[in-house]
Amino acid sequence: MKRRETSLFWRLVLRVALVLCGGAALLSAAAWYYARAAADDAYDRLLLGAAIQITANMTVDAGNLGVTLPSSAFELLGLAERDRIFYRVVGPDGRTLTGYDDLDAGVDVAAARAGPVFLTTEYRNVPVRVAVVSRALSDPSFSGWAYVVMAQTTEARRALAGELTTRAMILVGIMSLLALAGTVIAVRYSLLPLDALAATLRARDPQDLTPVDADMPRELKPFVGSINHFMGRLDERVTLLQRFIADAAHQIRTPLTALSAQVDMLDDGDDLDADRKRHLGRVRDRVSQLARLTNQLLSHAMVIHRSDSVRFKRVDLGDIARKAFRSTVPITVDPDVVVSFEDSAEPVFVRGDAVSLREAIANIIDNALQHGVAQRLAVRVRREDDRGLVEVADDGPGIPPDEWSAVTARFVSSKTGEGNMGLGFAIAAEVAVAHRGTVRFLEKGERDFTVILDIPLYQEGT
After folding, report:
1. How many CA atoms lie within 13 A of 281 on its CB side?
2. Fewest beta carbons less than 10 Å away: which of 109, 202, 249, 455?
3. Residue 267 in contact with residue 313, Cβ under 8 Å?
4. Alpha-helical runs (H) found in 191-212
């Protein structure tokens, strides 16, 4: 089951979104609370104004308390069209002068002497807001406290509170969305140093194991430090591997060369019978095969190592092919075999590692000498469009086309018999791939079978 990839960007955005949602919920609750308080305050002022106007119109005439209800008081309350209004005027003796006798505020009216009293209660099974206002009456024939109780249903208050809350929530929602969009942009730009670090690492040469020197935020410094520490350890391992390959090549090749010389010395004697000479010949062949296999294995290890550790530079493919030709074609080659080398008329520059390319060309030439050449071997270097080609042609039987894709694999050979290691073309193919090239074949025609090492030409800036 494929593991689901997590995104740091979306994790940050999600967490900020959750914080914004929580803040929006708190702001919405606060908006509802303050909207309700604002609606109560606005309508309480209307109730208080109406009650004060009624108390102001109380008169005492001949010891009798009278009250005139001003129309302006009810006009203000009538602005709330969906609400109903109830009132009651109570004299000093507790009798109702006018209004609803059963309108009882449910509080001690004496408390209203210190100032207006507001409360929320129910009257006739509907919620109402009540205001109680008192007035002290002082007359030679009449004195005491009179009270005005004003009540109003709360539909308009709830509607106003709901409208204010809705507007506030819309504003909070818009601000939250803008904040979330700003957060997305801010997080995206904040994570750009990660993309820059990734681009820096991708742009580095595979052989460059020097520490990463990039301007990074403080939070990324430990990450960059860990990368540099890892590359330092990797560089140490690569250096040890280089030393091991060099030591192994020296320590293995030297005794093999000595053993081959000793076998040759034994073969010089005339006192050996035919049977012993036959066995000695087999020993010589085995030593030769072992030396060849060892050289190819070490060459293969070196090529793999250098492809990952050596920085490529501009090299002359013709010069490399000439050196490979001279080192591979033995001086003691059969005089009946015609060997030739043809360089390009102009330099063929490629971007690569000269040592690895020389090993690849040498293995192709050696494979032709061992398994292909009958009477003719030709090595040619030439340009073709934006490619550099090294062609090794021989007049041998060649390789059938249906085996071309297989012979470039390790330990696969198109020839049977002793001494066929199947590493020559594998080494050449791996070097070609490391240089963004390929090893290909031309089918044997009337003359020669040809193996071609195809490498891109050097381009400035690559």
Report:
1. 7
2. 202
3. no
4. 192-203
List of long-range contacts for 126-130, beta carbons under 8 Å, 24+ apart: 126/84, 126/153, 127/153, 127/154, 128/86, 128/152, 128/153, 128/154, 129/40, 129/43, 129/44, 129/47, 129/153, 129/154, 129/157, 130/47, 130/105, 130/106
Q: In which band, very low, low, confident or very high, does the pLDDT at 337 lie, cut at 50, 70 and 90?
A: confident
From residue 443, give the alpha-carbon distance in Å to each of 24, 209, 364, 380, 396: 76, 43, 16, 17, 11
Task: Specify the DSSP element, H or E, that contains 282.
Answer: helix 274-309
Residues paired with residue 122 on neighbouring β-strands, in sequence order: 127
DSSP, residue by residue, 339-395: EEEE--SS--EEEE-HHHHHHHHHHHHHHHHHHT-SSEEEEEEEEETTEEEEEEEES
Which is it for strands 376-384 and 338-342: parallel, antiparallel or unpaired? Answer: parallel
What is the 8-class DSSP label of residue 211?
A: P
Convert the pLDDT of each residue in 199-246 to its tens digit.
888 887 766 777 888 778 888 888 888 888 888 888 788 778 777 766
pTM: 0.50
- Per-residue pLDDT of 371-423, as tens digits, reads 878 888 999 999 988 999 999 999 888 888 888 877 777 555 545 444 445 56
- For residue range 74-101, list pLDDT tens digits in order: 776 777 777 888 888 888 877 888 888 8
- Closest CA relative to residue 357, chosen from 294, 416, 297, 315: 315
**Structure confidence at residue 418 (pLDDT):** 44
Name which of 59, 51, 115 is nearest 89 in CA terms: 51
Query: Taking phi first (over 0 means left), then psi (-120 to 50 degrees means alpha), and beta for anything else, what does residue 327 get?
Result: alpha
Neighbours of 308 (CB within 10 A): 13
The candidate with the shortest Cα–Cα distance to 343, out of 358, 368, 325, is 325
Find the farthest-apart pair of alpha carbons in the chain and give their distance in angstroms, rounded.
170
Q: How confident is the model at residue 461 (pLDDT cuts 50, 70, 90)?
A: low
Q: What confidence score (pLDDT) does residue 419 get? A: 45
Residue 25 one-letter amino acid: A
HEC states along 61-101?
ECCEEEECCCHHHHHHHCCCCCCCEEEEEECCCCCEEEECC
Give the CA distances from residue 453 to residues 109, 347, 431, 444, in Å, rounded to whole numbers and listed in that order.
111, 16, 9, 17
How crowded is residue 86: how many other Cβ atoms within 10 Å of its Cβ?
18
Contacts for 72 with CB less than 8 Å, ≥ 6 apart? 53
Give dist(CA 176, CA 181) in Å, integer: 9
Task: Check whether 332 has a pLDDT greater than 60.
Answer: no
